[in-house]
Amino acid sequence: MLLAHFWWGSVFLINVPVALGAALLAWRLVPDSRNPDALRRDLAGVLLSVAAIGLVLWAVIEAPVDGWTSGS
Fold it and tell me: Are 11 and 3 in contact (CB under 8 A)?
């Protein structure tokens, strides 16, 4: 129905009121769940995770250029 009466991008705009309604309901119905005894963030773990994901991404991008079995 949206495509018949409006431009094609309107199919994405239908999600805006749904998302706003869901956010409002979540804000009202979901209880606060903070843990007062939570530990500090693991900065070394965060940095290692970012580095690992970055290296995997770099390898996937560069593999077509050098070949998947290249050591360089």
Answer: yes
Instruction: Please return the burial class of 56, using the count of CB atoms within 10 Å of its CB with bins 0-12, 13-18 and 19+.
Output: exposed
Residues 6+ apart with CB under 8 A from 3: 10, 11
CA dist., res. 40 & res. 45, Å (int): 12
pLDDT for res 72:
63
pLDDT in tens, 29-51: 998 888 888 888 899 999 999 99
10 Å CB burial of residue 60 (0-12, 13-18, 19+) is exposed
